[in-house]
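During the first year of the project, the team set up a workflow for recording each protein of interest as an amino acid sequence followed immediately by a discrete structure-token representation. This format lets reviewers and collaborators read both layers of information side by side without switching files. As required by the reporting guidelines, we include two representative entries from the current panel. The first entry is reproduced here exactly as it appears in our internal archive.
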Amino acid sequence: MRRSGTVVDILRGCVLSERDETGERVRDIDTASEWWGIVIEGFGLAYGDLTAPERDALWRNVRAAHDAWEAAGRP
């Protein structure tokens, strides 16, 4: 979660929610490159020390959990 002024960005697995005074926009993140861009650039989290295989494994785990959540009847 990140707050910037009146905007709150929340990343839960592969779902990015952006909330502000006008409402909420929700979208799924479908690619590893977009997800890592949000995590590192958007949220400023430092994962630069992970190797490419470690990044790939983390993305696969996040994506698998998201797919299972959707298959179970995403609320």
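The second entry, processed by the same pipeline in the following quarter, appears below.
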Amino acid sequence: MKDIPPDKEKLAAIRREYAGEPLDDRSVFEDPVEQFQTWFEQALEAEPMDPNAMTLSTATPDGRPSSRVVLLKGFDPEGFRFYTNYRSRKGRELEKNPRAALCIYWPAMSRQVRIEGEVEKLGRAESREYFRQRPRPSRIAAWASEQSRRVESREELEMRFRDYEKQFEGGEVPLPEFWGGYLLRPDVIEFWQGREERMHDRLVYRREGESWDIRRLAP
């Protein structure tokens, strides 16, 4: 099969104008989590699908990066929470290199938030509480999927699901020991607001002890 080169003219022509509200360092919250909460509440109203979807980037100890989309499942002054299989690629990378970055994009509002920081596992009690809130098929899938491991076929994966479905039939689906949550404790949070003529607004918060330093960046 021949390689199909991209249509460079079509790609170059993909563009749109951004017309967001001004992002002023004199009017934002001093705490970036409060600022994030304001934007997130607005995203819940404005974004038609998955307003809590975010790109999680991890890296190996020698700096080889990998990224994937996960779902934000909680945030507070401590940090930002997500859940996954600890044996997945991201889990293995976080075990060796516990720093990560998140990126959330809300196209309807022309907004983006980047978050960087240290990552740690959540306690089992907190992970169990969230796990019990998941739909039953999702809990069974957590057992059936050896995330990031090779499978020979779709049929093999579905057979594993049916086996665990039968195993837990009529009872509770327990939290797997290899599955749970992470907390990213931020030390950098950047807010990006699309503006006209590509003169975007960028404000970055950097942790300094117990407070945050706020600076404007060139777009």
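For the second entry, the following points were noted during internal review. Helices lie at 8-13, 32-46, 89-96, 124-133, 136-144, 154-167. The chain is about 30% helix and 35% strand. Both points are flagged for discussion at the upcoming steering committee meeting.
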